[in-house]
Design a protein that fits this description.
Chain lengths: 269, 321
């Protein structure tokens, strides 16, 4: 029953995020040739205007990149990164802090359902939605977008990139759930979650790692300062092996969810 | 004549089974000591009213009994089980109507009822249909479009038809019109006749007097009285009303066992007596009594006395100005 209610309640966010993806894919397919031409012109203009080399490098990289590089890893995944980060935060904070804000938390806890079941059902449904939101764009890229643009896709690379990305969203989601359980209302939980995300971005924006663009999933999964703090995450030199940071983030996410569960068992309206 | 301090209801030979018991409950929120010493014994099959002024700790106590929050100290048990540790087992056997918000506003009334009934295997559809016929709620409308009274009706239509053994209702008639209030009170009595135990908190004394048989009075986080309604009415004595054939003179009622003398008119006064009337009558025989009436106090008077209420004194001729 709670699964059904949670699904109904979060369907709106899910559909919005999905619509953004599909819209993004549609726009890419429709306007890609024009964008490509325009980017070439912009690059020429940028070179003439002697813009910073980072900007020129970025534009150059976009134009020179071939698949697997551009479409899957950059364009789509960048959009997914921001779209799904937002979705992960919203879905996370809505579950418990949202109930508190609406005043339904007390009644929910008075239902003849164990707290463990409430937590599991309210946590897993949005996670499944998040996973669907993450992998649907990959399917879109494989079946529709890439052939339209005329580029070849390596399935394993795309799957790997999507899974790494999923670990990022899982981590963000886990933080949001933890704040949702611990804090008294939706605004506070949301604020805390965005504060943590901003903290991650700040921690990963050192000069040494500038080469890794923010839209690159490796960049987000690296977090060397956190590695020094917790000794969990891998060294920046190992970024060529993307499964490890993904695994680390998944482990941290699971630990956060366990903490959230333990807090929830004793939480009060 | 019975002693006013002695409960008039003879203690039944067979002690009623206690469904909910709480003793020495304490709860703090930060520095605020919300519950100091709450004691509660709800007999099985009774309608128990939990009365107290605003902020007395009624809702907090109900939440502890539901297992939603944990008491700092003391013991709360329902169906013989600890309310916190075995809360899931207890919640399977009860339904709750919260005082404040609690409905999913984006659901329609019908969606809420369909969602909520799935949790209760012994759900009584016939009762719900009957209640919905009486309440005439627009079930296709979203709950957010409902008035306060309609939301309460929706909650009650659900809770009263859950088929559970215990109903915990936090101010069930709050915001309801007189017609629906009547209907809800009748349903509460019918639920009792089906063997359901009802624990409700309320401020409306007239309704409590009509439907409840047991009362717990709480003030500032402490239980100050617990017993039957009759015991409460006789808790601090009987009410004696006397009309004399002459004007009342000071000292007329200055008698042992008499207190709270209140003069209504030059010849009429009411007072509380703590001794038996038979002992008092010879002393009153000296007075030219026109009319005399004697009975238990009304609930309102008793409660105000228990809360320690003192009426404001208005100075008609303020001299300070």
């Amino acid at each position: 029953m709670i699964i059904r209610k949670t699904t109904d309640e979060n369907a709106f966010i899910f559909l919005c995020a999905l619509l953004i993806f599909v819209g993004f894919a549609f726009l890419t397919v429709t306007f890609w040739p024009s964008v490509e031409t325009a980017l070439t012109e912009v690059l020429d203009m940028a070179k003439k205007a002697k813009l910073p080399r980072q900007v020129i490098g970025l534009l150059d990289g976009i134009l020179k990149a071939q698949f697997v590089g551009w479409i899957a890893f950059r364009w789509f995944l960048m959009s997914a990164l921001f779209n799904l980060t937002l979705a992960a935060v919203f879905l996370g904070i809505k579950q418990f802090a949202g109930e508190r804000s609406r005043g339904t938390y007390e009644w929910l806890l008075s239902l003849p359902v164990s707290r463990s079941r409430i937590f599991i059902e309210k946590t897993l449904v949005p996670l499944a939605m998040l996973a669907m939101l993450n992998y649907i764009p990959s399917v879109l890229v494989i079946n529709w977008l890439a052939p339209t643009i005329g580029q070849e896709i390596k399935l394993d690379a795309l799957a790997k990139a999507s899974t790494i990305q999923m670990s990022i969203f899982f981590l963000v989601y886990s933080f949001s759930v933890l704040f949702s359980v611990c804090l008294k209302d939706q605004m506070r939980a949301g604020g805390a979650a965005f504060f943590v995300i901003a903290g991650f971005m700040a921690l990963s924006s050192g000069r040494r790692f500038r080469a890794y663009r923010p839209y690159n999933p490796y960049y987000w999964s690296d977090m060397p300062r956190l590695r020094r703090m917790f000794g969990v995450l891998i060294d920046a030199n190992e970024m060529a092996y993307p499964w490890r940071p993904a695994l680390n983030m998944a482990v941290i996410g699971i630990i956060l969810l366990i903490i959230a569960y333990l807090v929830f068992l004793r939480s009060e309206p | 004549m019975t002693d006013p301090m002695e409960p008039t209801e003879s203690v039944s030979e067979k002690q009623p089974e206690i469904l909910i018991s709480a003793s020495g409950l304490q709860k703090r929120y930060g520095r605020s000591h919300v519950l100091k010493n709450i004691n509660l014994n709800v007999p099985k099959g009774s309608i128990y009213a939990f009365i107290g002024p605003n902020g007395a700790g009624k809702t907090t106590t109900l939440r502890i009994l539901l297992g939603v929050i944990r008491a700092r100290s003391g013991e709360a048990r329902a169906f013989g089980m600890d309310c916190w540790r075995k809360s899931y087992r207890i919640r399977k056997r009860l339904a709750y109507v919260p005082c404040e918000r609690g409905l999913y506003e984006r659901m329609s009334g019908g969606q809420f009822l369909r969602f909520a009934k799935k949790f209760y295997p012994d759900f009584r559809k016939d009762i719900q249909t009957e209640l919905l016929d009486r309440f005439r709620l627009p079930l296709k409308k979203r709950v957010q479009a409902y008035s306060t009274g309609m939301k309460r009706q929706l909650f009650l239509a659900h809770a009263l038809s859950t088929g559970v053994e215990l109903l915990i209702l936090d101010e069930p008639t709050h915001g309801l019109d007189p017609l629906v209030t009547e209907c809800v009170l009748a349903e509460i009595v019918l639920a009792k006749q089906r063997g359901v135990t009802i624990l409700l908190s309320s401020h409306i004394l007239g309704q409590i007097e009509r439907v409840c048989d047991h009362v717990g009075v709480v003030n500032a986080g402490e239980t100050i009285f617990e017993g039957t309604l009759e015991q409460l009415k006789r808790y601090s004595g009987f009410q004696l009303r006397i009309k004399l054939n002459r004007a009342i003179e000071p000292g007329d009622f200055n008698l042992p066992g008499v207190s709270d003398v209140e003069q209504f008119s030059p010849t009429e006064a009411a007072m509380t007596i703590h001794s038996e009337l038979s002992q008092l009558l010879p002393r009153l025989a000296n007075l030219p009594i026109g009319e005399i009436s004697y009975g238990a106090s009304d609930l309102r008077t008793e409660l105000l006395r228990l809360y320690g209420y003192k009426p404001p004194k208005h100075d008609d001729n303020p001299q300070d100005n």
